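Posting this for the archive.
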Amino acid sequence: MRRLLLDSPDLVRKRPGTKAFEYHIDCLPEQTREIIKHRHYKSLIAQAPAQPVDESVKRGCAIKSRDELAIMRQCPALLERKVQALNDHQKQIADARMMLAQEVIRLQQAGMTRIAAVTFIVEESKVGTLPEALQRAATLANAKTKRAAPGKGWAKAACRNG
């Protein structure tokens, strides 16, 4: 390996305190680099699951436009009223989405692009290999409900209601 890198001394360095040398990841074949990166990102997600979002961040998620955001900053009572209007399920969905967004940010800080981080989490979610808390958040964040096919289920509901 050292002979191959004689032209590129910036890709090899002596490990401090030992006789060993460290080689830059760019010395490896592309496929090997991708496998190492994937393992690294998986271990990063598994290390410390995202913590629940604090109240101030949750409130910021409900805001849709910049103008509305400016008004809410000037009058927190409006923001509080808007958050209180959400039901518990909507708040849980927002919390789950925020947890996933935090994981995307963590992966970005580790060197991934935003699109790659989102794709990584989506793919891991589909396979079911995310840590348990993140897997639950991904399922909840989809906010899909099973709806009866048109015409089905309506008769029973009508009978019960009178």
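The helical segments are 30-47, 55-61, 66-74, 76-84, 88-109, 114-127, 132-142, 154-161. The mean pLDDT is 75.
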